[in-house]
Specification:
This protein is an alpha+beta fold. It folds into two domains: 113 residues, no CATH class; 87 residues, no CATH class. 41% of the residues lie in helices and 18% in strands. The chain has eight helices and ten strands. The strands form three sheets. A six-stranded mixed beta sheet has the order 1-2-3-4-6-5. It has a two-stranded antiparallel ribbon with strand order 7-8. A hairpin with a 2-residue loop joins strand 7 and strand 8. Helix 4 packs across helix 7. The longest helix has 20 residues.
């Protein structure tokens, strides 16, 4: 159990077979119970049926929000996370997490559900342990926060991933972060470089590390983030 003073509320969700109760029609289906966890001191709500996994998300989100604050990107309203026990389906195949900006809906697969898969899954050639999982939580939360702070109607994919991967790397424990950054064998984006969806598609790991290094070393990270939040196309320029 993480050392957080967490408050837990319980909600009840009716199964589809029991909707008839709302119309005064008798049915025998049982209600399915889902727990809603409000992360202490955070605008984060987690729904699911695994209290320990929900606590873990709250712990990871606390570190993520502290990092977002350094970029003047505190959430403007509550972020709701649905914890699932299976991979999240989307257009490019199963994923461990997915943020749907059109519905402001964030789904995350629990760490336990990820680690029981066979063969054991990896991320950037590393086992997905608690530290790597916290990075995944940060990544998806940045998608949600970027949606809240975007300065255009539709924020470009490459802009979203630049922010999400930079945040994911930035919040890793230092020894792990240094190891992952070193393994990519790349330097930061340089002034005038085109940060593009093409590069993202060719090598996600290198894109992620270049983005982290660029934002980390930028003379005014918060100001550059505002430029990124104005990007609607397939690419934008580093400065």
């Amino acid at each position: 159990m993480h050392l957080l003073d967490l408050q837990r509320a319980t909600a009840t969700r009716l199964t589809g077979a029991c909707v008839g109760l709302l119309l005064g029609i008798s049915c025998n289906a049982q209600a399915a119970s889902v727990s809603i966890l409000v992360c202490d001191g955070q605008p984060i709500e987690v729904s699911g049926d695994d209290p320990e996994a929900m606590d873990e998300i709250c712990a990871a989100s606390l570190a993520a929000l502290r990092y977002f604050a350094t970029l003047d990107m505190a959430p403007t309203h509550t972020i709701r996370i649905e914890l699932t026990g299976k991979a999240v389906a989307h257009g490019q195949g199963p994923a461990y997490g997915l943020y749907d900006g059109s519905r402001e809906h964030l789904q995350l697969m629990s760490l336990g559900a990820i680690t029981v898969q066979r063969p054991p899954p990896t991320l950037f050639d590393r086992a997905i342990d608690h530290a790597m999982y916290a990075g995944l939580v940060t990544h998806e939360l940045m998608h949600a926060v970027a949606q809240q702070h975007r300065r255009v109607e539709t924020l470009g994919v490459v802009a979203q991933e630049y922010l999400a991967y930079a945040a994911q790397r930035a919040t890793l424990p230092e020894p792990l972060r240094l190891e992952i950054v070193g393994s990519a064998g790349v330097s930061a984006w340089e002034k005038g470089d085109t940060i593009s969806e093409i590069y993202l598609g060719l090598n996600v790991h290198r894109f992620a590390v270049k983005s982290y290094l660029h934002l980390r070393d930028h003379r005014d990270p918060a100001a550059f983030v505002q430029e990124v939040l104005s990007s609607r196309g397939w690419s934008f320029q580093a400065n």
